[in-house]
Amino acid sequence: MTERALLLETMDLGMRFGGVEAVSGVNFRLTEGELRCLIGPNGAGKSTFFKLLTGQLFPTSGKVLYRGRDISGAETHEVARLGIGIKTQVPSVFDGLSVRENIWIAACRGRSTRRANETVDTILSRIAMVGAADRVVGQLAHGQRQWLELGIVLAAEPELILLDEPAAGMTHEEVARTAELIREINRTRSLIVVEHDMQFIRMIASKVTVLDRGRVLVEDSMENILRHPTVRDVYLGKRVAA
Amino acid sequence: MSARTWNVAGLALVGVIGLVAMIGLPQWLELSSLLDVTVYLILAILALSLAVVWGYGGILCFGQSAFFGLGAYAYAIAMFNIGESTIPFVLAIALPAAFAALLGYFMFYGRISDVYLGVITLTVTLILFNAVNSTAGPEYRIGEARLGGFNGIPSIPPLNWPGVPDSALDLNDLFYVSIVLLLAVYFGLRWLLVSRFGRVMVAIRENEQRTGFLGYDARLYKLGTFALGGALAGLAGCLFANWGAFVSPTIFGLGQSAQIIIWVIVGGRGTLIGPVVGCIAIQWLTAYLGSAQLSKASLTQIVGPTVANVLSSTLGIADFSNTNLVLGAVLLAFVLLVPRGVMPTLRDLVRLPFARRRPARDLVPDKAEGTT
Fold this sequence. Notes:
By secondary structure, chain A is of the alpha/beta class. In chain A, 38% of the residues lie in helices and 26% in strands.
């Protein structure tokens, strides 16, 4: 297997809110084509870490490199233009617009109108929302909004996709289909997925990074993570024991 | 009927009404009434400027009158200095647009929150009001033009056809120019809203964070929207200065600012035709109340003595021609009873019988959704 290029790297990344160190000294490396899961108990710093990657927060120490380029503290839209797409925990969509328009807005940046229209049709069928294309997004169920946001992210054709709890609030079948979609996306894109649902992480089976109190606790495959004594203590303990 | 059909129908209807008004009104109305209509049309352009900035751009500008006034003053001052209206006309649009761009730069790039944006824009127009108001002395002049302070600037020369200084517009011509410009602004904005810029602008109104995640610089789009609003308000100001051949600092005042917002609220935010209708209706109502002298006696005739007595005793007034009072009541009634404004409510009522005929489509779940 050939050595893959480094896509994203954080060096000693830290974020302090007053006296609280939400993220501290995180050295994170993601190679091209990788699918990485990020887990950790509540308050472990997962969301803060995502915000540091997408330019929503300016790190108090360290830096974020994307393809070797320092993007720490860059504007959100600049980060997006480099090819990083994000799906937020609470679906961030355009509520007053139709499903089609939502995806069109994502598809048309930097592309011709014709190309954008083609992308919209492709994405609509990919997220199975062709029939709902003209519905106003505000009326959709939570699971559908999650899918739509995934479609929006895909329509922008980013190289690296950050997913913050993509399966939250979904039914069992929806979770299974989301996992399938993520594996499919991973054939051509790199992903970082934050998730609580262990079942879901097993379904997408990949390397896992465990965050705890703002630090990287351990980084390994899912099987090894589940056997790791400290991880069981801080995060999985009760659940696995039960 | 699909949304597209409705859109085309709506556009055609506005076009027809516009054409009929343009051809018919000068024949049906006396010059004095035509003059009243002209000012409604001019103010409707002002209403459109806020309709796009607030209704579609999501920027609540409390000081749209600042750009309206700047347009009027820029035209008046340039006219006295130049004498031929081509450059003053352009200045009346460019100067407010540039001022809006400058103000917008600090507000949007400084990441000012919506509430403060309202406060700042309101303050700006009040500062302009006070500044211009205190320039009454003869030492306050720009070239040939005396600013006149609270007295305003009288006898502003009218527009002429571009490059032909002798062809000054009379009041009839001003009506045609106003209605043509109003229609041009309306259809221009309709076009803008289906263009890429317009669609992204609306997306930013819906969710600014998401547009950022998609690579759009929302600040730049908002700046563009705000400057466009400034330009349109300036255009309206230029026509307004022509209409009365007079401009005074009250154009920057709180009353003027509030009125524009009321037009948009009453007519319907998020539509273009709504603010136009709201503006014309409220201006007409204001003018009517001003001339009708709606006293307690006449109120008695309309609503009966009991209601009139209750009204006048609870409100403690005998004179109901107080326009501000009526405007306040209108605003209150709309915010409470028709919060979306006249046009969106009316539109849904008209579409209702058509929408009922296809109830199935929205309810049938997409097969691929796995919900069946």
